[in-house]
Amino acid sequence: MSTQTQSIFNKICHLAAEKQANQIYFLPGQLPAIRVNGILESLNNQNIVSASFVKDLKDILTNDNEKEELKEKQQINVVKEVENLGNVQIDIYFSKKLPCFRIELLKQKIPELDNLNAPDLVKKIINKEKGVVFLTGDMGRYELMASILNYINKNKTKFIATLEDPIKTIIQSNNSVIEQRGVKTDVPSFEKGLKFIRERDPDVLMVSRVENSEVMDQIFAIAETGVLVFALFDSCNTVKTIKRILHFYSFNKADHVKYFLSESLAGSITACQVPKIGGGRVRAYEVLLGSSAVKNNVASGKFHRLSGMIHTVGDQMAISLDQHLAKLVQMGEIMSDKALKYCNDKDTLRTLLSK
């Protein structure tokens, strides 16, 4: 492996950090590229990424076990440390039989929850003692999750356990006890990791990915014992998350799943990062508290009513993404065209903006 390849990789990672980028792309036959505040920018002063460079980089960035996993699955994500910069998450995959890389620069300091523009309703949800909280949204959801866990860590005396694939941010124990376990590094799978969680009697659990019914069943069971469970989903709102969970199960189990969802739902938090006027990005939120009315609609499968409730029940119980985007426009934080790009319903947002 080439020390020159390692040097170029480190140099571009540091260059990206200086430009306040959050992502880097190495694709063979193209210039390296970075993403700053959601906008892609080619690094014109760098060389075209060669086939030999990406092959060498793959060898540098993976250990023997990761090489075997990449050979089997054709795509993996790993977390590595870059000298004098900190941890980065690296997605490795293939295009035209050559390795490709997407690198995410991870923030080394966990931001305070109060600095992430979160509505007061978020704290109302995370101060619950038990139930399932769905955390969804864009790639920034992991940073938001770390801030939520660190808020609990600083303000409460709890045993906080996590199952993560991979562990991106280390949370240092404060008033709470923190146990972070990596899937594939500390435990073989989410399923096997969850089977032993209850024996350690956690107060708070975070699961970084839910992909099947077995994991979801175990989350329901753990929440029933009095644990507050945060489950991360790659979806854009509450209703789509619930529908996705139902798709884990066969049709004849739908009523069973809706019952457990309604019984365990503590709330749902969705966040997306929207470009700000003057640079940077600000989070817009959809937040739903698991009230009796919400649980009744989940149990009966009346998801259209659930969508309506998010817009109408008032900011003590819910806030819709469109409402929060409209508020950010009215406060002069974001442009209306950016709000329309990220909203759930353009007509609803236009109506809110016209008031």
Beta-strand content bin? 15-25%
The DSSP helix count reads 14
Shape: globular
Q: Rg to the nearest angstrom?
A: 21 Å
Mean pLDDT: 93
Description:
The protein starts with a helix and ends with a helix. The protein has an eight-stranded mixed beta sheet with strand order 9-8-10-11-7-12-13-14, with helices on both faces. It has a six-stranded antiparallel beta sheet with strand order 3-2-1-6-5-4. The chain is built from 14 helices and 14 strands. The longest helix is centred in the first third of the chain and has 16 residues, at 3-18. It is an alpha/beta fold. It is globular, with a radius of gyration of 21 Å. It is 40% helix and 25% strand. It has two domains: 3-105, Beta-Lactamase, CATH 3.30.450.90; 113-354, P-loop containing nucleotide triphosphate hydrolases (Rossmann fold, 3-Layer(aba) Sandwich).
